[in-house]
Structure formats: structure tokens, C-alpha cells
What we know:
The complex is a heterodimer. Chain A has helices spanning about 1-10, 60-70, 95-100, 115-125, 130-145, 160-170, 190-205, 215-225, 250-260; strands at about 20-30, 35-45, 50-55, 75-80, 85, 100-105, 180, 210-215, 225-230, 235-240.
Amino acid sequence: MAVAKTGSVAAARKRPLDVPVVEFKDVTKVYDGGSVAVQSANMRIGRGEFVFLVGPTGCGKSTCMRLLMKELEPSRGEVSIAGRPLSEVPRSRVPYLRRNLGVVFQDYKLLPNRTVYDNVAYSLQVIGESRKEIRRKVPDILRLVGLSTKLHNYPTELSGGEQQRVSVARAFVNHPPLLLADEPTGNLDPETSIGIMQLIYRINRTGTTVIVATHDKEMVDKMRRRVIELREGRIVRDERSGFYTQDESTQEFAIRLRGELGVGDEGHPN
Amino acid sequence: MRWSFFLKEALRGLRRSSAPALAALLTVLLTAVVLGVFIPIVQATTGTANEVRSRVVVDVYIKDTATAQEKADLRSAIENTANVKSVEYISKAEALRLARGKNPKAFKDGTELLGSNPLPDSYRVTPVDPDKLGQIVQRLNAGGEPQLSAIDEVRDREEDTNKILSATGLVKGLTAGLAVLLVLASIALIANTIRLSVFARRREVEVMKLVGATNWFIRWPFVIEGMIVGFFGGLLAVLLLAILKTTFVDPLAERFALLAAPDTIDFPLLIVVLMLACIGVSALGSGITLRRFLRV
Lengths: 270, 296
């Protein structure tokens, strides 16, 4: 319910589409060792889009993600978020940039010595949210990802899928306008993967722009979203799927995905 | 909210990595104890060395024929010489008494045999700077010739003086060198232990950076943790030193002048210095070692 509400609010506030959320202008990244990770990449990703970044391992997907987080600087060209070039963001402002990005990783990157609740609460504590707000928001988001019964468990006591849900909850708890997921389903079985993709799709439907890097071609084909394919650092394909159904509900999405991937419709409720 | 959060995070960190924290605490404790013992020792040694140096004097022997007026002139002449700190008059009788104290056999029996006191009146001159004693001798006794008629002889006991000066100089240099080495070793040891405990949590720091924590937001809990470790390490060290002082040093101090040397540091001041050093070094150590992991 809460999600549907946020969705309409975001839709009402839609900014003009000519300011892309993410823009790569002729971006090249050469690592110190001399290996070229990304070469002359150009792309524009609009507000509210769901984009897959695909390609084999080592094609530069993760480098693109790390460029967006300003963990790396491009060797040439410019990366902009919401029209603002990242090269203009000073080092001391990088943490504030990251607060507007939700990030999800293949290895979850949870804090091992904190409970599920504390892991999610940490990203709110970092931005100086009051205790009252934290007590309100954290259980909310954990209910959304379907972990309301595991609040006080430690990450090691959870399954891979559950850990990834915590990681998604942490990424989304302060409702960032952009969500980056680097191989979010890389360690998970197909059924659990659908659950996670469904969750990310649900987040996308609230108006959040989502970029998912993956090498799971089958999943990408079935999802029918925009796909940007990288090969040896170059963008070789950027296509919007023809069968793009813009307003598919989360439920429909999951049913279709299960059907097409040949997985039963049992499993996680979320 | 913020500070209570940092404090809570620091306490959580201590609970979580209690083994490295304990190691850091022990390191702080040991170095503080060593420093606490060493600081008074250094001070006592240099104090003693300085005291020995102050014994470097020039004796100006006065002719038996000199009049009271000549003696007074001589005194003011010596007092007006550069580098002279004080001038003390030692009469024949006084000189004999002192000599008897040092060598009763020769001076008691000997003078009884002689039937008179063979020692002259003299002025004992103490220099401001013992290293420049030569200047005084030079002025009063240029080229081996006494410069004033009342002077019989000027003696600076050259051999004794040189021995005292070189020995005390060596002692001072050695203790200063040792003190510097000890402080450096302490800092290196503490920094290394802290580095270990921070290194064990570098993954945690990485995740904190990813969710947008500022560097100081990450750093404060570590710094507070360092301060807590430093505080308890210092406190235990001070307690240990207090026990050592009351059981060993105080009873001995009554018997040995060295330990009661007046210019060693007061115990309360020593406590304050040690506590501040412990807390400061630990907090700084945590903050600085973290810098490496904050560059993401």
C-alpha cells in the first residue's frame, strides 16, 4: 500500500524528461595497470527507467557502477547524475552523493555484527535521521521486503535471498532516486532471483530509476526492459524491448516471469 | 543524538573486538608503566649530573701576608670577573676543619706534629657555566702569573674538573637518547596494535562508506574507542606505578638521596602527563590508521 502511494507522488512530481538521471558522455576508464575497462561509452538513462547492463565478466559493467558511485574517476569523458557532472562533486561531498544512490551488491555487503534491523537503521543514522523516524521507517521497509519476522537475526543466520533482501531494504530505506544493483542475483537460485527482481521492479514502480548489472541473459530476455550490452568495454547494443509493457503490475510481472523461466508460482510472497 | 550514537558505536566496537582492544590496552599499559618509571629516573640522573657539575670550583689561595684591605679588593675583583656565580671565603681554621673531615689521619696527627696550621686562607669560586671554567682561571692567573698581589696561587683542579664534565655529559646524552628511543618505540607499538584492530574491521568501514557515511562519522567511534582504551590503559598503569611507589620507592627514598632528588617530577603531575599521553596517543593512533581505509 505504502509503495503505491509513493509511486503516485513520484509520478506527480515528474521532471522534464530531457534531464537524464544518468548520462555517460564519451567515457573511457583505463586502470593504472593499463587495462581498458570502458571505452568511449555514451548512454542516457531517463527518470524512472529500468535498465539492464549486460555482458560477460570483465566487460566493464562493474566499472560503470563504480564510476556512478564516484568510487573511480573516468580517465576521459564525463559521468553526470541528474545533470550534474560527477567531476564537479568535491571529495568531501561524495558521501552526500552516495546517500542519493541505493546500491546492492552480489555479496550483499552487510555488516556482519549487526542485526537485520541495525543494518538497515545504519544508513538512516548516517544521514542523521532521528530515532523516532528510524523506528518508524525500518520496520516499514523490512515489511516491504518480507523480513518483518527476522528483525533481530544476524546476517549469518539468514539465507542468501534473505540477506539480499536486507541489502535491498538498506539501499531503498531513504528512498533514493537512483538504485544501482551489481549482479544482485549472482549468488542466488532462479526462484530466489525472481523474488529479488520482483522486489527491485516494485521499487522501480515507485518512480526510482534502476540500473541492474547482470550476466544472467535468460532473466534479462524475459524481463523485457531496456538492455545495454557491453563487450570489452564498448557499448554494442542499447535497445528498448519491443514488448515493453509499461504498466505491468508487480504481480503480473512475477507471474509472467515465473511462467517464462519455468519456475512454479510458489515461493516467497514478495 | 549524534554523540550518544558515537559512544554507543564505540562501546559496540569494543565489545565486538575485545581481543584486539585488550591487546591495545595492554600495550598502552606497559608503555605507560615503562615511561612512568623512566621519566623520574631520567630526571634524577640529570639532576644528579647537574649537582655534580656544580661542584666544579676554582680555589684562589691568598698570601699569608695579605692585609684585610687586599683581601676585600681581591674578593670584589673576583666577583666582577665574568662567569662567576659566587665567591666563598674559607679561612685557615675553616680549611683545616674541612680537611680533617676528609682525611682525619693526615690532618689531625700531621698538624699536631707541625704545631701550626699550614693551610692558607682562600676564596672558593663557583662558576655559572662549569664548561667555561677556564675563562676565570685565565683572568685571575694569566700565563701562570697571579694578576693580583694578594693571590698566592690559583688552582682549578683541572683533572677532576675534566673527569666530572665528561662523565656527566655522557650520562646526560645517554639518558636523553634513551628517552627519545623509548617514546618512539611506545608510539610505534601503540600505532601498530591499533592498526591491527582497525584492519580487522576494514570491511565494515567499506560498507559504511558505501551507504554515504562521512569520514568523520566513521572516524569518531574509532577515536572514542581509542580514548576509552587509552584511558583504561593509563589508569591501570598509574595504579601500578602508585603501588610500586608506595611499596618500593618511598621506603628507599628515606635512605638514598638520589631517589629523593628535589627536582624530579611530582607524582600527581606524572599521573596527569601519563593519562593525557595515553588517551591522546590512542585516539590519534585510531584516527590516523583509519585514514588508509577511508580512501575508497
